[in-house]
């Protein structure tokens, strides 16, 4: 059989948020590659080889996936959420650029529900007006770039979704990000801390930015900073459809 490479998003955690298209791809896969906790979400079965790897090995993983597909495998690379959002789809295309021999392989990217959308739905509608998304990890870009983008997003009055806010290896960045937004005059904006959305230990906290502390976020948290018009109605938070 001809090999194929599928890059699939597993959604934020709950089985109910895996799309039928992704489930079908997993059901016919011969090999599944990805960061170990994501591969662990796929049930083992006969005929399927699970190939978990470390978080920092994206390009090697992508190259291995291409090799396995070229050798005839039905290969699926899994990401959490959506594979195109701070995840493996870009890494696969980067690997493909390096090995033009594989460019005729049938490749598909299957979307998933990204953390930002799952988190927004829990809070209400904080992304109902213009917004942007930023990865706060400075593993792959300089911190100065993050700071500049935050300043400009605040100035443009976007709601801001923040991925990878804080990890053990990067304890300082998120506090600095909050300080940048405070200095940009966003102290009264609402901030949503959405942790482990759709998992059993899900937790949603909503505070004013002036009251937000770095400890409120970890690597399983998606943070949404509202725009200047974002407000509460009952237990919900929403961005009105009209800007001032
Ligand atoms: N491709 C993924 C994002 C990978 S970056 C997606 O589309 O969702 C990993 C970051 O995503 C985490 O640090 C966290 O900020 C966020 N994240 C992933 N799953 C989450 C969940 N269930 N709840 C809250 N945030 C989540």
Mean pLDDT: 96
Return Rg in Å.
Answer: 19 Å
CATH class of the largest domain: Alpha Beta
What is the percent of helical residues? 25-40%
C-alpha end-to-end distance: 58 Å
CATH topology of the largest domain: Methyltransferase, Cobalt-precorrin-4 Transmethylase, Domain 2
| CATH architectural label of the largest domain | 2-Layer Sandwich
- The global form is elongated
What can be said about the biggest beta sheet? 5 strands, parallel
Unreliable stretches:
none
Which sequence of strands runs across the widest sheet? 3-2-4-1-5
Determine the CATH superfamily of the largest domain: Tetrapyrrole methylase, C-terminal domain
Number of domains: 2
Which small-molecule ligands are present, each listed once?
S-adenosyl-L-homocysteine
The strand count comes to 13
Helix/strand order: EHEHEHEHEHEEHEHEEEEE
- Beta-strand portion reads 25-35%
Quickly give the structural class: alpha/beta
Layout: helices, strands, pairs:
Elements: E1 4-9, H1 20-27, E2 31-35, H2 36-39, E3 49-53, H3 58-70, E4 74-79, H4 88-98, E5 107-110, H5 115-123, E6 124-125, E7 131-135, H6 143-155, E8 159-163, H7 173-183, E9 190-195, E10 203-208, E11 221-225, E12 231-233, E13 236-238
Parallel strand pairs: 1-4, 1-5, 2-3, 2-4, 6-13, 7-8
Antiparallel strand pairs: 8-11, 9-10, 9-11, 12-13
Helix pairs in contact: 3-4, 6-7
The protein binds S-adenosyl-L-homocysteine.
Report on this model:
The protein contains 7 helices and 13 strands. With 244 residues, the chain is an alpha/beta fold. The strands form 3 sheets. A 5-stranded parallel beta sheet has the order 3-2-4-1-5, sandwiched between helices. The structure holds S-adenosyl-L-homocysteine. The site of S-adenosyl-L-homocysteine has 25 residues, from helix 5, strand 9 and strand 11.
């Amino acid at each position: 059989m001809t090999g194929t490479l599928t890059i699939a998003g597993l959604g934020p955690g709950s089985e109910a948020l895996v799309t039928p298209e992704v489930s079908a791809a997993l059901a016919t896969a011969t090999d599944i590659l990805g960061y170990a906790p994501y591969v662990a979400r796929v049930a083992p079965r006969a005929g399927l080889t699970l190939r978990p790897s470390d978080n920092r090995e994206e390009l090697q993983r992508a190259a291995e996936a291409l090799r396995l597909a070229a050798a005839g495998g039905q290969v699926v690379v899994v990401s959490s959420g959506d594979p195109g959002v701070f995840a493996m789809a870009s890494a696969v295309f980067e690997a493909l650029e390096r090995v033009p021999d594989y460019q005729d392989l049938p490749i598909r990217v299957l979307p998933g529900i990204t953390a930002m959308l799952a988190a927004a739905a829990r809070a209400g509608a904080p992304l109902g007006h213009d917004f942007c998304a930023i990865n706060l990890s400075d593993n792959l870009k300089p911190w100065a770039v993050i700071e500049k983008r935050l300043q400009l997003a605040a100035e443009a009055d976007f709601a801001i979704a923040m991925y990878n806010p804080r990890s053990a290896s990067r304890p300082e960045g998120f506090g600095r990000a909050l300080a940048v937004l405070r200095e940009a005059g966003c102290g009264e904006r609402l901030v949503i801390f959405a942790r482990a959305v759709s998992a059993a230990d899900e937790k949603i906290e909503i505070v004013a930015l002036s009251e937000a502390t770095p400890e409120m976020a970890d690597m399983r948290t998606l943070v949404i900073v509202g725009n200047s018009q974002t407000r509460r109605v009952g237990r919900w938070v929403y961005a009105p459809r009209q800007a001032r």
